[in-house]
Amino acid sequence: MIDGELSRRDQLVRAAFALVAEAGLEGLRLRRVAAEVGIDQSTLHHHVATKAALVAAVAEHAAGLLATTAPPAHLPPAAALRAHLDALADLVARRPELFTVTAELDLRARRDPSVRAVVERQEAGWRAVLTGLFTALGEADPAARTELVIAAVKGVRLVPDLAPLVLAQLGATDRTG
Amino acid sequence: MIDGELSRRDQLVRAAFALVAEAGLEGLRLRRVAAEVGIDQSTLHHHVATKAALVAAVAEHAAGLLATTAPPAHLPPAAALRAHLDALADLVARRPELFTVTAELDLRARRDPSVRAVVERQEAGWRAVLTGLFTALGEADPAARTELVIAAVKGVRLVPDLAPLVLAQLGATDRTG
Amino acid sequence: MIDGELSRRDQLVRAAFALVAEAGLEGLRLRRVAAEVGIDQSTLHHHVATKAALVAAVAEHAAGLLATTAPPAHLPPAAALRAHLDALADLVARRPELFTVTAELDLRARRDPSVRAVVERQEAGWRAVLTGLFTALGEADPAARTELVIAAVKGVRLVPDLAPLVLAQLGATDRTG
Amino acid sequence: MIDGELSRRDQLVRAAFALVAEAGLEGLRLRRVAAEVGIDQSTLHHHVATKAALVAAVAEHAAGLLATTAPPAHLPPAAALRAHLDALADLVARRPELFTVTAELDLRARRDPSVRAVVERQEAGWRAVLTGLFTALGEADPAARTELVIAAVKGVRLVPDLAPLVLAQLGATDRTG
DNA sequence: TATGAATGAGATTTCATTCAT
DNA sequence: TATGAATGAAATCTCATTCAT
Q: How far apart are CA B13 and CA A118, in angstroms?
């Protein structure tokens, strides 16, 4: 799907996404979003009712992008985990802004219920996948391993250069010896 | 030094800190900060020149609180690492807002040089401590272990309940066997 | 074009002009300008980006009014000079505020480059006209005569009643005999 | 009288005078005046009750400086006129700021009665001197000549470089031939 | 005489949103 | 779907002035 075929709404969401990556949610200005798409600021409201709705849409967009790292269902657990972590590393490298935006959204989710809903749904899915994998791998404490992975990924979000170094340590089966 | 003896400036910084924890940096309002301390909003500028300066002062305050988790110098490395992680877990449990504020500041640091300066200085110190410990412990890749700890801590910042679970996995000497 | 048909921007500029005449540039308040036109103060910014831009527009407006005193091109020099001075005297009598505003702008021009640009352009045009006339009249030192006229006009700006007395002395061809 | 012997009040008045020359009456800030003298802004109020009083004092100071151009009483009229114009030219060259300040005060006088009182008194004196001289010189219309001189001087105030050119034309006895 | 703290009034500007066209 | 004009609420910051010390 090329850019020209995107709906106005999608264009707006992507423009907002880019703006959040650049200036933060705090720096998000509807005027600029509209300008980026080439429409008037008041026209924007025909496509997105309110600023909060736009932010929620940005959250949905981000969740969609993150979902692409889910491992294929048919793979054996060890390979699936490896595939997932590789996909994450790849995504961090190719689209670092996505993770900046995610960090912004995590903070916003604390105060905005509609953002929280999206963020929590995405995270629940991720958590389920990881727990499933670690359980299949026979890990002693799959939940703990899961949280470590999630925390580590979230923690390197703003420093993409360090992501490979950190992610490489998460695939190892044994944690204590 | 009890609260009543704090300088007005310190009172303001702490009030701002609390407000950031509650409403985010985005929701920080000088009016409310002043009101919380019981002075006029114009008087606030008598003590803190500008909002940016206040935010920087909040960052300093946060850095100071985090510094209390540094392990005592005389401890052997294994105990020092344990002490540090325990102190972190303790701080997360007792003062979860500190970590919320830290997450806010990490994002702000991307755009505000004076906040960035404080945040980077704090993080550099932390990194040095961890790398020293892991080196002393004979870890194969002390830098990698350091980044994993930092990332994991940052990643659980907003979910204090999960902190023990995650932190418990970071002290283990062996990662791969 | 009657007042009711003026663009909002023009209405605002004229209201600002009147306010400067009354209270000085120092006393110019956007709130009052907007109120005078009957719109909200925030709407004013929809038409004029910034206060400085409004002041610059006022300067343009003043320059336009002053330009009406330029003598018709076809007149012989003596008549042209007389016509110009008469037009000036007439303008001083009919629109004394214009000259008050001009005096304000001359001072502001020292500090505001965009006002300076307008003021200097207007003055350069005036100077060129006068020098042309005095040269055509065979004056010994056209530049000197020009500056005397300009200075004298500027000097009586704030005392319209004295303008005729002063202007009457500027048309005389011979200055020293 | 050297600077160190000036009263605090005089120091403040001179500092204010300099600041008006630099930033205009509009840009006059008590804080800066106090800082320039090396005292606290609130201490300033022990010496000058109010900002308006300080401005009036600046006007007095300016009037005092202008008074130095009055011609010695004993000179014959022609020489006295020449002496006065020379003194003016000299003052413009040596202390151009004085004339900037004067221009500011003329505008302020329109709105501030206490400034107006000072300015009018000074101007009345000047007018009396000039009219006396032109009368003694047997001018046909001494009042008119007086106003031309006053206007011309006021008109070149902001362009000291042109002052000699303009002033030179004001001493000539004959105006029409 | 000097100061630091406090005040209150006010000013410009920004921004999301609405409405009529 | 699109727009330009308008709004109202709010926010930061400035500044002269006052008061207690």
A: 34
